[in-house]
Amino acid sequence: MTTGTTTYAALLRGINVGGSRKVPMAELRTLLEGLGHGGVGTYLQSGNAVFTSDHGDEDSLAEELAGALADHFGFTVDVLVRDHAYLRAVLDACPFPAAELEAKQLHVTYFSTPVDAGRFASVDRKTFLPEEFRLGDRVLYLYAPDGLGRSKLAESLAKPRVTKGVVATTRNWNTVVKLVELTDG
């Protein structure tokens, strides 16, 4: 159990895309408040929320929110919850020169559990150059010079053989930076 109040970000996967699985941000904020969390806010319409809590840990808070979302909306939403310290560490550990790149060129995929390099052994990295990826602590950093929408490497990394058994959700660098700011006290 966490002691004191901690600031977290909730990352919802696969909502508000293509007109399906709608989760209005106002309703997400209300759900978080109803779970007893404070300092609730949302960022963009793509499933990013921040909140404070004095109970639980990342996994239990994610399960609690996922359950509330399923009860309220009638469909399952994968949720990852990460605290400010972790989000800051991910930002600081970026292996690519973020300050020199456009935000659309750099992405972070957050994973529900640690992943090892063996999971990505079938990806022929040379085939995708100049696109590159590097692993971190429960994250994958992706450099895609032409953006995520045109990235052949991102497409390969999202295949079931790579993502099986793990929840993964991707954010662009602007969102990564913003979530660190929003969870900073």
TrEMBL record:
Annotated Gene3D superfamilies: SP0830-like domains (3.30.70.1280)
Protein name: DUF1697 domain-containing protein
InterPro entries: DUF1697
Domain of life where this protein originates: Bacteria
SUPFAM superfamilies in the record: SP0830-like
